[in-house]
């Protein structure tokens, strides 16, 4: 259940949107010296769009690799949209109408309250859904591989993971198209862009609901 929540949370965060900068820094062994450090490196690599770093700090299957790469493609589309809005309407309008586009900051603050339960070479990391929400958490599994802690991105429900990947790729395509429309001058204001963005976010939320209901059958 908690592993499934981690997949759904990743989609929920992207439904809100993310703002970040690209990076090429690789993960060092010190970054994975504990389960919680591994989780921080995991999210940093996702938000940075850094696949080599993400691959270095995760244990994957073919399905989980597809899911993680879909998450990163969605991150790239968010960067494109943020840049297009800022270029067209300015930083002030961007900040006013897209206050939730900084989910990286929200996630990293939540990780300050993360706790790990270690059992040999395996661990469970419980993370608040939002900063300060100690009573509402999701869980990521971690395991030690060659002395380094890594997030176990594999899920028992591979079908859910594939559906999540498809939903993320669909979102990425729609966000990229929205970015092109913004750059082409199709919108009169950042608020108009926000309305279009909400339509995409709502479609992702419907995908979340569909994934949840299918999995409960």
How would you describe what is shown here?
This protein has helices at 2-16, 35-48, 51-56, 62-97, 103-111, 158-183, 190-216; strands at residues 58-59, 115-119, 122-128, 137-145, 148-152. By secondary structure, the protein is an alpha+beta fold. It has one domain. The protein has a five-stranded mixed β-sheet with strand order 1-5-4-3-2. A hairpin with an 8-residue loop joins strand 3 (122-128) and strand 4 (137-145). Helix 2 packs antiparallel against helix 5 and helix 4 runs antiparallel to helix 7 (190-216). The chain is elongated, with a radius of gyration of 17 Å.
Summarize the structure.
The chain is α+β, with helices and mostly antiparallel strands and 217 residues long.
Order of helices and strands: HHHEHHEEEEHH
Mean pLDDT: 81
The total of beta strands comes to 5
Integer count of domains: 1
Q: Structural class, from secondary structure content?
A: alpha+beta
Strand order of the largest sheet: 1-5-4-3-2
- Main β-sheet: number of strands, strand sense, barrel status? 5 strands, mixed
* Shape estimate: elongated
Distance between the termini: 14 Å
DSSP helix fraction:
55-70%
Question: Treating each run of at least 4 consecutive H or I residues as one helix, how many helices?
Answer: 7
Query: Regions with pLDDT < 50 over 5+ consecutive residues?
Result: 1-5, 12-27
In terms of DSSP E residues, the strand content is 5-15%
Radius of gyration in whole Å, from Cα? Answer: 17 Å
């Amino acid at each position: 259940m908690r592993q499934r929540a981690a997949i759904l949370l990743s989609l929920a965060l992207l439904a809100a949107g993310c703002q970040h900068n690209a990076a090429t820094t690789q993960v060092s062994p010190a970054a994975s010296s504990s389960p919680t450090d591994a989780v921080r490196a995991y999210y940093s690599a996702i938000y940075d769009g850094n696949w080599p770093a993400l691959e270095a700090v995760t244990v994957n299957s073919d399905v989980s690799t597809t899911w993680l790469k879909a998450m990163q493609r969605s991150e790239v589309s968010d960067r494109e949209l943020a840049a297009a809005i800022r270029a067209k309407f300015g930083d002030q309008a961007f900040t006013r109408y897209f206050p939730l586009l900084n989910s990286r900051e929200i996630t990293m603050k939540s990780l300050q309250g993360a706790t790990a339960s270690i059992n040999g070479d395996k661990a469970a990391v419980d993370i608040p859904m939002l900063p300060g929400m100690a009573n509402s958490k999701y869980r990521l599994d971690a395991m030690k591989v060659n002395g380094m802690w890594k997030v176990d991105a594999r899920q028992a429900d591979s079908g859910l993971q594939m559906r999540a990947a498809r939903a993320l790729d669909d979102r990425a395509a729609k966000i990229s198209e929205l970015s092109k429309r913004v750059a082409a001058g199709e919108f009169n204001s950042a608020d108009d862009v926000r309305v279009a963005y909400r339509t995409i976010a709502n479609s992702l939320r419907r995908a979340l609901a569909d994934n949840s209901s299918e999995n409960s059958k």
